[in-house]
Amino acid sequence: MGFNRYNKLLRSLISSSRSSTTTSPFSSIYCNQSRRSVISSSSSCSSDDAKTTHFSTISTSSYHLNNGPSYMRGAVFWEPNKPMTFEDFQMPRPKVNEVLIKTKACGVCHSDLHVIKGELPFPSPCVVGHEITGEVVEHGPLTDTKTIERLPVGARVVGAFIMPCGNCFFCTKGQDDLCEAFFAYNRAKGTLYDGETRLFLRGSGKPVYMYSMGGLAEYAVVPAHALAVLPHSLPYSESAIIGCAVFTAYGAMAHAAQVRPGDAIAVIGVGGVGSSCLQIARAFGASEIIAVDIQDEKLEKAKMLGATHTVNARTEDAVAKIKEITGGMGVDTAVEALGNPKTFMQCVESVRAGGKAVMIGLTLSGAKGEIDINHLVRKQIKVVGSYGGRARHDLPKLVKLAESGIFNLGAAVSRKCKFEEAGKAYEDLNQGSILGRAVVEIM
User: Fold this and answer.
1) What is the reported pLDDT for 363?
2) Structure confidence at residue 311 (pLDDT)
3) Taking the CB of residue 303, how many other CB atoms lie within 10 A of it?
4) For 391-418, b where at least 16 C-beta lie within 10 A, e where not — what string?
5) pLDDT given at position 367
6) Are 129 and 216 in contact (CB under 8 A)?
């Protein structure tokens, strides 16, 4: 792409965004004894080039509004220290302004892992998974015609993990990332915005709660405001990470940090979300992009994703090294993508006077981060929390960034797994052996 065209697209996107343990709980998934086993002892996640075995029991082509399949399969988390299981569900049904999606791929995220390990309170049993791509197969009754026209049956879509209601105080002000209904119902109760889940077990009818849309299932009900059209030029699997890893990074860079060309940026923790921050910072024109981690493999990959400098915090003083790289000043913005009290402090101490420390990493519920109050006051440091982007405005822009090649999805996704290997993926994520983002294919 020519430089002028590249610059023009970036300016358009940036300006428009600113205007508006015993048994491991994430070990291999098992079926109940009455169902066939879906895990073999040799099961492992596939490489990028490996072919994916189709695990889905229902094909999209068999789905019709009036006589489609009556059930689907999903992975259920029951409680910490117990393995997830595959269960049969009644076919979920969308309600007004909701869309039923045939799930094609779902990203493996640390937020799910925090729920699985019991570090974040969430109702259970539940289906985790909140980075999805898929195909529209049904609209809820009385859904408005504009939504149906925008997302017709058969449309390829990507979903954002923050699913805005579109009607609350914050949504009406364009602050989808603070949607009252999302936090009051989905994050607090595991339901959609009528106070009910869409997931019920096939045999017993027992309700199962939804972490976002409950993406680790063959079908998912998603509020229409959380969806954007996915062009045919973008693959289902790699594009799943747009809905959280890329979405969270974009929210941090565009809204919290308000990165401008020439800024110096440090990203502390370059896993799935942190590595996306590197790409977004590069796209926004940051001049110095410093990646900080404790794994040399992740730091090597960070260089491919936009990092101009790398710091191994295991062998070097991260704050001192960041100051050295920036001529003693510190960075304009530091991003903490781990959710760790130590790196929280490093983030604050790494920014220049008047700079921003942006916190995007989640951690154990109730954990505290310490700040030197005098340093904060005298240096006018801004500490900003950022949970994600704004789905209605940002998600289509992120699709364009990926479609244009400015954001490289392929480089961000380091592993693809079969549906039945989801538990192994979370186990590897917990052990730190996934360098970027893993994606579960459910096609």
Assistant:
1) 84
2) 97
3) 14
4) bbbbbebbbebbebebbebeebbbbbbb
5) 86
6) yes
Phi, then psi, of 158 in degrees rounded to 5: -125, 145
How far apart (Å, rounded) are the C-alpha atoms in residues 351 and 319? 9
Query: Residue type for 102, please?
Result: K
Residue 113 phi/psi, 5-degree rounding, is -60, -40
Rounded distance between C-alpha atoms, residue 157 and residue 129, angstroms? 16
Contacts of 310 (CB under 8 A, 6+ apart): 290, 291, 292, 293, 299, 300, 302, 303
**What predicted TM-score, i.e. pTM, was given to this entire model?**
0.84
Collect the ranges in the chain with pLDDT lower than 70.
1-68
Picking from 297, 265, 294, the residue whose alpha carbon sits closest to that of residue 279 is 265
- 1 CB-contact burial (10 Å; exposed 0-12 / middle 13-18 / buried 19+): exposed
Confidence (pLDDT) at 66: 53
Closest CA to 273 of 292, 248, 293, 256: 248
pLDDT given for residue 82 in this prediction? 83
Task: List the structure tokens of 83.
Answer: 């393995």
| Structure confidence at residue 138 (pLDDT) | 96
Single-letter code of the amino acid located at 189: K
How big is the CA angle at 129 (ends 422 and 144), to the nearest 5 degrees?
Answer: 140
List CB contacts of 20: < 8 A, sequence separation 6 or more: 174, 390, 393
Query: What does the chain come to in residues?
Result: 443
Residue linked to tokens 């490289």 = 408
Per-residue DSSP letter, 263: -
| pLDDT 10s digits, 5-45 | 445 555 555 455 444 433 344 444 433 333 333 333 333 45
CB-based contacts of 161, cutoff 8 Å, min separation 6: 111, 130, 131, 212, 226, 243, 244, 247, 388
What is the DSSP secondary-structure string of 205-240? Answer: --EEEESTT--SBSEEEEEGGGEEE--TTS-HHHHG
Sign of CA dihedral 57, 189, 369, 307: positive
Burial label, 88 (beta-carbon count in 10 A; 0-12, 13-18, 19+): middle
